[in-house]
Model the fold of this input.
Amino acid sequence: MNTITGRNLKALREANGYTQEKTAEYLGVGRSAYANYEAGERETPLEVLQKAADLFGCELALLFEEDEMAVRNMLVCAFRADDLSADDMREVASFKSVVMNYLKMERLLEK
Done:
């Protein structure tokens, strides 16, 4: 299984101050399934990974990053808030998605 993806999911989740339960609820999976994704005991479906990347405000590729320093560098941008509901998390993910798309467009226009 993919322990790198699990390690990165856990690091990003913790940096954002989310519990496994809240993250699982947002992702539409059970908490035990999410815990298995983080532990590398179950393969994480691509649609769940994309939804997690949106929530954490990162490129999908970062979840597969072997270099822990690259993931740590992303953690400085973590958005922390206490006691967010699944609806709040959807709003945060939508905002981060807009920002990520803007940054992608900026990079494309620079070329």
In short: The first helix runs from residue 3 to 15. Helices lie at 3-15, 20-27, 31-39, 46-56, 68-75, 86-110. The mean pLDDT is 86. The chain has one domain: 3-110.
